[in-house]
Amino acid sequence: MALMPDRKRSWVESANDPETDFPLENLPFGLYEDDRQRRHTCVAIGDQVLDLPGCAHEGLLNASQSIGLGPRGLGHVEAWRAGEIRRRAAELLSDAAYRDRVDPHLIPQKDVRMLPSFGVGGIGDYTDFYASIHHATNVGRLFRPDNPLLPNYKWVPIGYHGRASSIVISGTEVRRPCGQMKAPDAAEPAFGASRSLDYELEVGFFIGQGNDLGETIPLEQAEKHIFGLCLVNDWSARDIQAWEYQPLGPFLGKSFATTISPWVVMLDALEPYRVPAAPRPEGDPKPLPYLWSDHDQARGGFDIQLEVWLATAQMRAAGQAPVRVSRGNLRELYWTLSQMVTHHASNGCNLRPGDLMATGTVSGTTPESVGSLLERTKRGAEPLVLPNGEQRKFLEDGDEVIMKGWCEREGFPRIGFGECRGVIAPARV
Ligand code: MN
């Protein structure tokens, strides 16, 4: 995409690259840790990180913009949500008059150690939904060819309570889990290393403002509780999952690791890329009133392109580039983010700042747009053949999975999410 003639330029040159994920119009939130284990809030700009406490110390941010990290997590959530901090950072990074004072607070992204949360105590709770009807249908069909969708799917945003302690930041090695599983033809289960390790391409959203226990969140208010979005890889051991999931749902087949991208893209940065919620097919039931509003239907979708890339150890050793194994879009979700938030709190469950929600695997309708190997290889029945001749039913040790997401629209700059990556390490025997 060509540079917009009227587009504001940054004095950080890499931010003006039309291919960057992080132009002035994005400025996603992040948290990094310095050599003395101090946490710093920051924004991404081009290939750099802008240290916000450093700018505050310099007197470049006012009190309501100073980025306190209090004992209960990030201060000024509202200033973030309202775009106030991003607007000020954009001023500092575009007006050359600030350059001398701001430049010392830029650090190359490759030199900072990002943390996976904006809460000081880490991510409080993690809930994973199942909002892609194409994913739910594809997976259901593997098990129930004639009746892939269960009767509740079109009424309830289905979710399960994931494990927050094992959420790791992009780049963290993921160890192949061991667990209990039972082969279909075996008389008894056995314990061992998973042989069907999979990725799940998802989008996460952080809660910025919570609700009190016993209170609910009306649909029209739901977005005020969303801080921003990131990429999520909900690693899944299908053999462990298949044996354990009935009747209470996913457990150890998921909880060994979940990888998230370090940057939280704010809702107001995503404003130009909003679209109507995916239309419900003719004949589908209208959701119950607490989950339905014309406003949410008119703008509850997000046009976010999502990709999964794979690099095997053999490919990396041969100097071969990763190969794309999936390409989809978030706009096809059956449930909107607001519907998920409202449903989650509809029983009075309190959401808290720093909680992470995820959409569930994002799949489209074509083989190239499914968000897991389970779907892509039909549970291993149709292995994926890579350009170098290697085949994959599921992930092997040494495989690296890289997820990317970005938005493009004519008249607006591309903004992106950065990467969510992880390499599979061998199981500990
Ligand atoms: Mn998932």
Describe this structure in words.
With 429 residues, this protein is an alpha+beta fold. The protein folds into two domains: 13-115, Roll (SH3 type barrels); 126-425, Fumarylacetoacetase-like, C-terminal domain (Fumarylacetoacetate hydrolase, domain 2). It contains ten helices and 28 strands. Strands 8, 9, 10, 15, 16, 18, 19 and 24 form an eight-stranded mixed sheet that branches. Strands 6-3-2-1-7 form a five-stranded antiparallel sheet. The mean pLDDT is 93. Residues 128, 200, 202, 234, 360-361 line the site of manganese (II) ion.
Record keyword descriptors for this entry.
28 strands, 16% helix, 429 residues, 2 domains, Fumarylacetoacetate hydrolase, domain 2, SH3 type barrels, alpha+beta
Which helices and strands appear, and what pairs or packs with what?
Blueprint: E1 29-33, E2 39-45, E3 48-51, H1 52-57, E4 69-70, E5 73-74, H2 77-81, H3 84-94, H4 99-102, E6 106-108, E7 113-114, E8 126-129, H5 133-143, E9 159-162, E10 167-169, E11 174-175, E12 178-181, E13 190-193, E14 197-198, E15 201-207, E16 226-233, E17 236-237, H6 238-244, E18 258-260, E19 265-266, E20 274-275, H7 294-299, E21 301-302, E22 305-311, H8 313-317, E23 323-329, H9 337-345, E24 356-358, H10 373-376, E25 384-385, E26 391-392, E27 400-409, E28 412-425
Parallel strand pairs: 8-24, 10-18, 11-28
Antiparallel strand pairs: 1-2, 1-7, 2-3, 3-6, 4-5, 8-9, 12-13, 14-17, 15-16, 15-24, 16-18, 16-19, 20-21, 22-23, 22-27, 25-26, 27-28
The protein binds manganese (II) ion.
